[in-house]
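Progress report, Aim 2. The chain analyzed during this reporting quarter is listed below.
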Amino acid sequence: MSGQQLMRGIGKSGVTASAVGLGTWAIGGWMWGGTDEAESIAAIQASLDAGVTLIDTAPAYGLGRSEEIVGKALAGRRDKAVIATKCGLVWHTQKGRHFFDQDGKPVHRYLGRDAIFHEIEESLRRLGTDYIDLYITHWQDPTTPIEETMRALEDLKASGKIRAIGASNVSAADLQAYISVGGLDAIQERFSMIDREIETDLLPLTASSGISTLSYSSLALGLLSGAIGPDRVFAGDDQRRENPRFSVGNREKATAFADSIGPVAAKHAASIAQTVIAWTLAQPGITFALCGARNPAQALDNARAGTIRLDADDHLAINAAVSAKLTAMDR
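Predicted structure tokens for the chain:
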């Protein structure tokens, strides 16, 4: 069955957003072979038109490029969107721990109070807004106590510059530390049919603490979309070009999986990708699924996943296909 866009709350914040979110890493261009600004803006606006309110971005996606594009797309429509962006990957200072270089600039993991207060102003400027709905620590900084980070975020919340607090790419120990300090509304973690580690370490903690979970790479960077066959060639700086996850063997398994769940997809007049996203949203503890799109067609395809309601028979068939086809994947 299909219905209205599925909406869910972000932790205890009182903020509600569409369960399907638009992820804008690719829109930043970096590690995705560049970006087309006009197409990206159209993709964001098409998402809003289809009822997708959650727009996820980050400063590190193209060193501010993704946030700038999101800001342009939301001009005059800010009230229709729930913006999630991030802090903690910085290039204005070399405090913290070096993480990677982007466009010749060293990017550090740093979540000190000084950097958070600098970053929020930069993000607000790029996004063309005066508040962020969900502000997330992007990667964790081993050089700064989590208590210092959370105090800074809570001060931003008290000032009205952010509405909810999240953390991403956390260990179970990190998450426990955030919970002990209090005030965490959400985590954002990699989760898909072939990336399920958080089911055993993080999701039990979030379930007992009223914390939402945003999954990223729900389609495993497109591997589970049904659209990347064994003959696909990845060009330029596309991160999938040298990724063992995209070995020919893995793509053959993913194609066989897609064929196996074809009847479920057909039952709902859905694509393989829509079916996989709908399955993801039905998993215990998964509140939101972030899905990338670089043009309106992709955005609309993702949006429809939020209207699909799989039944018990569908889940049995999909889980059987996962077990039979997606095992022993190259990583």
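The chain is about 40% helix and 20% strand. The chain has one domain: 15-237+274-310. These observations will guide the mutagenesis work planned for the next reporting period.
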